[in-house]
Amino acid sequence: MVSDHFRQKRASRRKILLRIRDVEDALQREKLRADAIIRLQAKELRKTRDYYLTLLENFPALIWRADTTAACNYFNNTWLTFTGRTMKQELGNGWTEGVHPDDFQQCVAIYRAAFERHRPFVMEYRLRRHDGEYRTLSDHGAPMFSPDGTFTGYLGSCYDIHDQKMLEERLRHSQKMESIGILAGGVAHDFNNILSVILGYGGMLLLQTPPQTQAHEQLTSIVDAALRASDLTRRLLTFSRKQESAMEQACLCELVEGFETFLRRLTGEKISLRLELHDCPLMINLSRSAMEQVLMNLALNARDAMPDGGLLTITTCKTVIGGKEAVALEVDPGPHACLTVGDTGSGISPEILSKVFDPFFTTKEVGKGSGLGLSMIYGIVKQHTGSVSIDSQPQHGVTVTIYLPLVKHR
Questions:
Q1: Same structural domain for residues 229 and 268?
Q2: Whether residue 78 is found in the same domain as residue 48
Q3: d(CA 121, CA 113)
Q4: pLDDT tens-digit series, residues 275-297
Q5: Per-residue CA distances from 13 to 8, 16, 23, 24, 26 (Å)
Q6: 249 and 353 housed in the same domain
Q7: Model pTM score
Q8: Do 65 and 93 lie in a common domain?
Q9: Distance of CA 369 to the CA centre of its chain
Q10: 3 state SS for the chain
């Protein structure tokens, strides 16, 4: 009986050990399966992380991230390519070194205020690009929070809106000039009617008044003043594009070359005139007298800007204007003749540059300019379905660029 008892006890123990081993094997299998699942999930997480990191790195927008202290701890590849700087240079507050000095205080103030309140923000500022040009960015910052609501920092994206801002500015300027032109044209027409009466009766009275008398001298002064006023209204009508000019097909280069002698006399001996004309004909529809007026006014402005002498360069070339550029210049896409007139004079300050095409705006002394020279040029170029722009920096001269559509050959 004792022997049977021990045999039963060993059999029971063996069963228990087998069960324990089965449980251990099952646990081991579960552990292996769990480890496999964890490795698979980790692999998927790494793939997801790499995907989103690649997405962030190559996203068209400039992406940045900041911690709870407002110090930036990440910039994507698009940002670094834009600025031409390294991650180390941009980290912390290093990125602010590229902000335009005039925008720096407002930019930092908005940035800091948003961090204090944990609120989203949108702001615009100019950031220096790798080529040194400042571009206007629209910066959108959003606060980040953990699942329990703890503030963890900011994620931001910046978009280059410089070209859009320039287009908006050109549109505003074009609309302003159009409004001024409508007003100027209306006033000029009404004023012309009044001048016609003054000139008509003044001329009749002159014929009836003996010469070399005080009355004849006074009437002559009245008629001369009316003639000057009539010339002023003519220029206003040219600006408003309500005075049509006789158009003909002609080569822009030949027109400039034929006007060279007059321009040299006009500018004087102190100023050197250099012509750089395109080899092939640049055929455009133009009014010869109107385009000569454009060259004369630009030469006069250059002469006044270089009282001690300098260089006046007139260049013609052919260019093809694409869709985006055509919208910015307000011309039809396609081949254009480009007329550039540049001087080495005193230049124009940025705050004045945006007003130079306005009628009656002038920086010259009283009696030395009517302020209609550039506004007439603007009107004439628009009559020729072209575009005119002006570029200048103080003490670095002025460059006026005119685009005129080339005649399409059949």
A1: no
A2: no
A3: 9
A4: 999 988 899 998 887 888 888 88
A5: 9, 5, 15, 16, 20
A6: yes
A7: 0.51
A8: yes
A9: 30
A10: CHHHHHHHHHHHHHHHHHHHHHHHHHHHHHHHHHHHHHHHHHHHHHHHHHHHHHHHHHCCCEEEEECCCCCEEEECHHHHHHHCCCHHHHCECHHHHHECHHHHHHHHHHHHHHHHHCCCEEEEEEEECCCCCEEEEEEEEEEEECCCCCEEEEEEEEEECHHHHHHHHHHHHHHHHHHHHHHHHHHHHHHHHHHHHHHHHHHHHHHHCCCCCHHHHHHHHHHHHHHHHHHHHHHHHHHCCCCCCCCEEEEHHHHHHHCHHHHHHHHCCCEEEEEECCCCCCEEEECHHHHHHHHHHHHHHHHHHCCCCEEEEEEEEEEEECHHHHHHHCCCCEEEEEEEEEECCCCCCHHHHCCCCCCCCCCCCCCCCCCCHHHHHHHHHHHCCCEEEEEECCCCCEEEEEEEEECCCC
Which of residues 145 and 224 earns the better pLDDT score? 145
> pLDDT, tens digit, for every residue of 89-145?
999 999 999 999 999 999 989 988 998 889 999 999 999 999 999 999 999 999 999
Q: List, for residues 17-68, the tens digit of each pLDDT value.
A: 777 777 777 777 777 787 777 777 766 666 655 555 566 777 788 999 999 9
Q: Are residues 266 and 391 in the same domain?
A: yes
Helix 288-305 to helix 373-383 angle (10° resolution) is 150
Amino acid at position 260, single letter: E
Query: Residue 23: which domain range?
Result: 1-58
Task: Report the C-alpha gap between 357 and 375 in whole angstroms.
Answer: 5
